């Protein structure tokens, strides 16, 4: 089995060293997490809010993937890999009648190629965004917001890792960079506000935040088939941007007023905003089981996989969610 999409699969416990008996692998994993607090710009912990209302966010993600060694060079291999990710985001305000959710839908199609050895590896990949769209519908009985389950942008991904076995210990370090690509977006907004009643189409150009991940792990084989370990992960988010915002509706005056309100910070576009610089440092405990008789690996991690990176128990951060509650389970099979 090979390493593919280095951090994503390593964090899910699905990366298995290449061997002469296996030319590829298939895998599946599922993660769930809850966000109740954020780190603010000063690094303090504050209550998570949706449109100013205290809330909690539930994040789910599932992935199905496969990899194949196209060339074997002794213990080294050249591989290709693909992964389909599905995800959902639900935000539950503490009070009010607003429902915000995306539904469990496709999020991204990820393709990669790389080179790996028992000691090190590197890869290049492309994440095609196939996430859901944003739709805001305000009625007298309450507001329904169909949230996007992705940032709406494709991304180029580059990464590498170094592994160092020391008897029963397994040490490793790595890095991954996610370069998001600029895109044009549209969203629909329907409101019953007396001053702005109507349906509007909002268009804008966005360049979502890029991400840099640095990570290191240490694992210990308590028995040959069972490994317990801990990963330290640092995630740095680089600010994104939203430009050229226009609002079109039946009434040009109302459209102009709404456009001015959005630019002033009254933002009806959750998940499609210019993200600020941010960072988070966290820990991810993990447990894996590798069968001695079958090419199967099971994993359990105390982390939640969001769109790009796994998110564990955060120790500190700025302008990022506080990670406290989440898990990932995974299964891989070599062939």
State the main characteristics.
335 residues; mainly beta; Lipocalin; twelve-stranded antiparallel beta barrel; two-stranded antiparallel ribbon; 2 helices; 5% helix; 63% strand; elongated; disordered N terminus
Architecture overview:
It is a single chain. The chain is mainly beta. The protein has a single domain (6-334), classed as Beta Barrel (Lipocalin). 5% of the residues lie in helices and 63% in strands. It is built from two helices and 24 strands. Strands 1-5-6-8-9-12-13-16-17-19-20-24 form a twelve-stranded antiparallel barrel.
Q: According to CATH, what is the topology?
A: Lipocalin
Number of helices: 2
Fourth-tier CATH superfamily name: Autotransporter beta-domain
Query: What is the helical fraction, as a range of percent?
Result: under 10%
Strand order of the largest sheet: 1-5-6-8-9-12-13-16-17-19-20-24
Secondary structure tally: strands: 24
Write the element-wise H/E pattern from the N-terminal end onward: HEEEEEEEEEEEEEEEEEEHEEEEEE
Number of domains: 1
Strand content: over 45%
The first-level CATH class is given as Mainly Beta
The first-to-last residue Cα distance is 7 Å
The residue ranges in which pLDDT falls below 50 over 5 or more consecutive positions are 1-20
Task: Name the average pLDDT.
Answer: 86
CATH architecture: Beta Barrel
Evaluate the radius of gyration: 22 Å
| Shape type | elongated
User: What structural class should be given to the helix and strand makeup?
Assistant: mainly beta
């Amino acid at each position: 089995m090979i390493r593919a999409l280095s951090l994503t699969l390593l964090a899910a416990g699905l990366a298995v060293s290449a061997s002469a008996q296996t030319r590829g692998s298939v895998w599946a994993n599922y993660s769930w997490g809850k966000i109740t607090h954020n780190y603010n710009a000063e690094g303090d912990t504050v209550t998570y809010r949706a449109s100013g209302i205290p809330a909690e966010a539930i994040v789910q993600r599932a992935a199905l993937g496969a990899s194949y060694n196209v060339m074997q060079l002794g213990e080294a291999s050249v591989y290709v890999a693909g992964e389909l990710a599905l995800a959902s985001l639900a935000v539950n305000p503490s009070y009010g009648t607003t429902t915000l959710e995306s539904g469990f839908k496709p999020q991204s199609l990820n393709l990669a190629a790389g080179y790996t050895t028992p000691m090190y590896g590197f890869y290049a990949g492309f994440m095609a965004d196939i996430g859901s769209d944003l739709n805001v519908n305000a009625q007298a009985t309450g507001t329904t917001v169909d949230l996007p389950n992705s940032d709406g942008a494709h991304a180029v991904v580059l990464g590498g890792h170094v592994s160092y076995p020391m008897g029963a210990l397994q040490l490793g370090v790595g890095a991954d960079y996610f370069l998001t690509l600029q895109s044009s977006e549209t969203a629909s907004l329907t409101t019953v506000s007396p001053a702005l009643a109507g349906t509007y189409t909002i268009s804008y150009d966005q360049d979502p935040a890029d991400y840099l991940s640095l990570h290191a792990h240490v694992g210990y084989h308590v028995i040959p088939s069972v490994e317990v370990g801990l990963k330290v992960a640092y995630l740095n988010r680089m600010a994104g941007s939203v430009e050229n915002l226009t609002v079109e509706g039946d009434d040009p005056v109302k459209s102009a007023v709404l456009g001015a309100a959005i630019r002033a910070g009254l933002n009806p576009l959750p998940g499609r905003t210019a993200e600020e610089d941010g960072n988070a440092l966290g820990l991810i405990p993990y447990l894996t089981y590798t069968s001695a008789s079958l090419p199967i690996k099971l994993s359990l991690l105390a982390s939640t996989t969001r769109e790009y990176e796994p998110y564990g128990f955060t120790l500190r951060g700025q302008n990022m969610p506080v990670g406290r509650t989440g898990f990932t389970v995974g299964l891989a099979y070599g062939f």
